[in-house]
Design brief:
globular, 26% helix, 6-stranded mixed β-sheet, FAD/NAD(P)-binding domain, 377 residues
């Protein structure tokens, strides 16, 4: 029997991590609409490894990825994928009670979360204003992720396993004929037994071409700006984020990356920052710190896509034969990519969820496109 042919639409982190793993047992072709992999969300991410993030399912997917980040396969990358970067969650007096709720929710899954004295918070980040920090919590296991090294590693692994990556080809048509998908991109066509929708914010547009029902995918814009250090040595500062995610900032090559942590619904597009979001970010930063922003060195935006329950959609469509969903990875697609790549490849091959992932309490139906949270659409 010939190898199964798999066509992955989208060469962001979701598509490449899936394709690299699937190529071990299938003939895989990745088709990317842009000129390079990771052009949109993956390439614009200020990625960090943060286990207590969104919900317990995302925490499990993240924790299962940690061994890969710490010890990737031989030849995957010439540089480390991660570097230590503690974080500091802060709460002003009006929100101090939220710290107890945060710790109560995450302490079981992340036992090393610890409240730190106010004096320690100011020692770590001396520009914080006194009124901005009534209480603070630290997670010692947060890490910076080298997104470029991770994306390049999955690409390298895909090609080493005989897979193909084709850029500058936008899929414009999908048709199922005699059990085979025919994908059209301009004058070129691709045949496959399985189509994987890893198109990020364009996921539902690809699904519509295949005749699949929507899952409620909503792209949301997130803004970031790069600031000077203000003369401070910031390299060892933690990531600082407000308890209700009103903003965060972190060191970035001697400067500070700042975001208002916005989630503004958007049509799929080449996202650009809005002046109002940049202004909000600066206002919140200046209210929380003694620094004044005289100049913005760079600004950008990206789209992060979510469904209603803020969990990824992973699995075969129940009504469209051979169409596999791999969307909705929101702001956690980078930190969960090693696990999501293995998981999606296993399901595409018709196998069960890998044992080590299942051991963390995950089951296929939790992520399936026909799960109850998405059925009303």
């Amino acid at each position: 029997m010939s190898e199964r042919r798999v066509l992955v639409i989208g060469a962001g982190m979701a598509g490449l991590s899936c394709a690299a793993n699937a190529a071990e047992h299938a003939r895989v072709t990745v088709v990317e609409a842009e000129s390079q992999p990771g052009y949109h969300s993956s390439g614009r991410s200020a990625a960090s490894y943060i286990e207590p993030y969104i919900n317990e399912t995302i925490q499990a997917l993240t924790a299962a990825s940690k061994p890969f980040f710490l010890a990737p396969p031989a030849g995957f990358t010439p540089v480390p994928l991660v570097a230590p970067r503690a974080d500091l969650m802060i709460a002003g007096a009006a929100k101090a009670d939220l710290v107890d709720r945060y710790i109560a929710r995450w302490r079981t899954l992340c036992p090393d979360l610890a409240e730190v004295p106010r004096a320690e918070a100011f020692r770590r980040v001396p520009v914080l204003k006194q009124e901005a920090v009534a209480r603070a919590v630290s997670d010692p296991h947060v890490m910076d992720i080298d997104v470029d090294a991770l994306l390049s590693g999955f690409r390298r692994l895909l090609l080493a396993r005989g897979g193909k990556l084709i850029a500058n080809k936008r899929i414009e048509g999908l048709e199922r004929r005699n059990g085979v998908w025919i994908a059209r991109a301009g004058s070129e066509t691709f045949e496959a037994d399985v189509v994987v929708d890893a198109a990020g914010s364009w996921g539902e547009k690809v699904a519509a071409l295949a005749g699949a029902r929507p899952v409620g995918l909503v792209p949301k814009r997130r803004t970031a700006v790069l600031l000077g250090s203000g003369g401070h040595d910031v390299k060892d500062w933690p990531i600082v984020h407000e308890v209700e995610s009103e903003f965060y900032f972190k060191p970035d090559a001697g400067r500070l990356l700042l975001s208002p942590a916005d989630e503004t619904p958007s049509e799929p597009c080449d996202a650009q920052p809005e002046d109002i979001d940049v202004a909000i970010a600066i206002d919140r930063f200046e209210n929380a710190t003694t620094m004044k922003v005289a100049r913005i060195e760079h600004r950008w935006a990206g789209l992060r896509s979510f469904v209603a329950d803020k969990m990824p959609v992973v699995g075969f469509d129940p009504s469209v034969d051979g169409f596999f969903w791999l969307v909705g990875q929101g702001g956690f697609g980078i930190q969960t990519s090693p696990t999501m790549g293995r998981l999606s490849a296993a399901l595409i091959a018709g196998g069960p969820m890998p044992d080590d992932i299942r051991a963390r309490g995950l089951v296929e139906k939790t992520l399936a496109p026909d799960r109850p949270a998405l059925r009303s659409l």
